[in-house]
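Thread: heme C complex, take 2
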Amino acid sequence: MHSDRNLSLLTLCLAITFAQQAFAQSPNLPKYDGNKLIFPDGFRTGWLFVGSNIGLQYKGEGATVLKDGHPLTAPRQPQVKAPGPPVEFHNVYITPDGYAGFRTSKTVFPDGTVLVIDRYLAQKKEPHDILSAGSFDGDQYGALVAVKDSRRPEGSGPNKTDWSYYVFSADEIAKPGAEEPVSDVSLSVCAACHKRNGLVDNVWVQFYPILRDLPKSGG
Ligand code: HEC
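Output below.
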């Protein structure tokens, strides 16, 4: 009787240890240097592409922060000669585990989910001058990162949310292992808009075909 119970306790402990090890070993989990996020460059080769958009603007109270494309990044933007704000492509990626968890639950993203917006200036001319219309991914323009991590280093305190947001410039991305820069913006503004308007669990599922079509397809 006793040994049965000990055996199940042992099995449980082993299961927890294996689960923790699996969590710790997944190469796509967010990594930090102190409080700073290390740029998750694995999205280029091993993540899922959830969707893209070009030149999204925002109505209402978000119009000011989003007026130059995506929020609060305006001070980092280079001077562009064309009138009006530069138009940029957003190519959005999610970690495979984040996608798998959301596919199952359809309502929440699992802890450890990371989404990256890879930003490119929309370019209309290429060296051979062969294009007559349209635009393509031009110069890298930096990246925005959303991380769901209840265990992140600075994640405690009264305003704690599981989601946190980071801004990287193109230069910071080019250096391998780049860290989150000291930011000149209040990142809590990011979380506030995402929480209020993202369709599911802070994420703008409404803009990403492989996420928003899950409920219809029955999983
Ligand atoms: C006023 C509203 C608003 C604010 C503030 C805002 N965002 Fe977003 N965010 C959006 C919208 C709209 C999208 C949809 C897709 C896009 O823009 O490419 C989005 C998408 C994202 C995504 C893709 C994953 C997801 O959650 O859908 C990331 C990453 C992201 N934003 C990072 C940030 C960061 C970093 C900040 C703060 C510097 C920020 N956002 C502030 C509106 C906002």
